[in-house]
Amino acid sequence: MEVFCGTAELAEEERLNSLRFLWMKKCNSFEAFRSVPKRRNEMAKKIAVGVDLGGTNIRMVLGDEKGRILSRMNVRTESRKGPEGLIQQLVRIIRSIMSNLGSDEDVLGVGVASAGTLDAERKTIKIFANLPFNNIPIVEPLEEELKMPVHLLNDCSAAAIGEKMFGAGRNVENLVYITISTGIGGGVYVDGHLLFGKDGNAHEIGHMTIDMAGRLLCGCGKRGHWEAYCSGKNIPNYARLLLQEKSSEEIERSLLVKFSKDNFQSMTAKDLYDAAKSGDALSKEIVDKIGEANALGFANVINLYDPEIITVGGTVALKNEDLVINPIQKYVENYAVNRVPDIKITPLGGDVVLYGALAMVFHENNL
Ligand SMILES: [Zn+2]
Fold first, then answer.
1. What's the predicted TM-score (pTM) here?
2. Cα-to-centroid distance, 203 and ligand 1 (Å)
């Protein structure tokens, strides 16, 4: 991808942005940053860059404070050149997407939503599970290069902010967003405050224990965690565990054999849900059991945080809406003590994290 150089006008704007950034650093205040006179019209449309940084792909949007997405970009994550290479790639593509800006648009900052574990100050990605390196400084190098404020949050926390600012949570103060994807994670608002915890990891709901017998091992190394049974990566493990209780006649009759290409060892979550969608009784029974385990996790979340609404995203949920949501609604009352809230798929769909990345910039004072 080409490095953005800019026209003479934009180069001048970059110079002014640089001066404003230095002034902001000196005053250590974003308010000061905003109070420095700008060459552009103060009525200029306020724009932010939202980045969803994943181990495989980087998705990026330009959007405004009303949540309108103006342009988007999707590139493979550069992992061969270590943290420095990744930072350089981010700088390059952020500059590139900003080259789409109109003359009456002004970028307020960049929000980066990242998979993985962050440090307590939310400036560095400490552990990035899907990249061959860790300890990636994000905020300072990007601010130095781009001369604008940069915010970093875990992708599940970001999704909760996106839901609160632009999605189904706009009129509530108590909201949980849950992703059922490769892993299971969440973001939680209680009384209008996003929960972070001592290290910023209060969203790790996928690692709550739902099976004291610890039959399945979680990717984190502990046993019996919700994610070990119900995440996209681990659903096949739970399905194989449940199949052990079935007779060979039942299994042979099942379409799951065909959908798994005669090999349960290489079965995917998609194989299972596709077989259930085709009406296969055994697959539907397993999907129902997965839903019951999900209901246990949801009930624990409801008992802990008492949300007014729970929205659900992530690939497994978005691609199998009814098969994921219906069993949760069916079983959650068995485990919840608190009043069960509305549980539904996020209206922001696969962009919920990107909306959150934008919301980080526009609602920085709420973070
Ligand atoms: Zn775990």
1. 0.84
2. 13
